[in-house]
Amino acid sequence: MQEKITKLPEEEAKLKLKLPNSYCEKGIAKGIEKIVTEMLKKGLTAKYISELTNISEKKIKEIQSKNEA
Cβ(67)–Cβ(37) under 8 Å? Predict the structure, then answer.
């Protein structure tokens, strides 16, 4: 696969190489969301979760409201 990518025009090759990273980032985001959701279910406050995880309270509250909808 790497050989095929090196034969592509530079801009197209860059785009193809970014794809795995974007999938990885989406997976990490989903995992974080799942962990925060479970912590909220256990009754932890957004402030406490933020202190433990270094995730902003704003982001935690976004996840919380998303799950309440």
Answer: yes
Q: Other CB atoms closer than 10 Å to residue 64's CB: what's the count?
A: 15
In this structure, what token pair is assigned to residue 48? 């406490």
DSSP track, the chain: -HHHHHTS-HHHHHHHHHHHHHHHHHHHHHHHHHHHHHHHHTT--HHHHHHHH---HHHHHHHHHHHH-
Length of the chain: 69
Residue pLDDT, tens place only, 32-67: 999 999 999 999 999 999 999 999 999 999 999 988
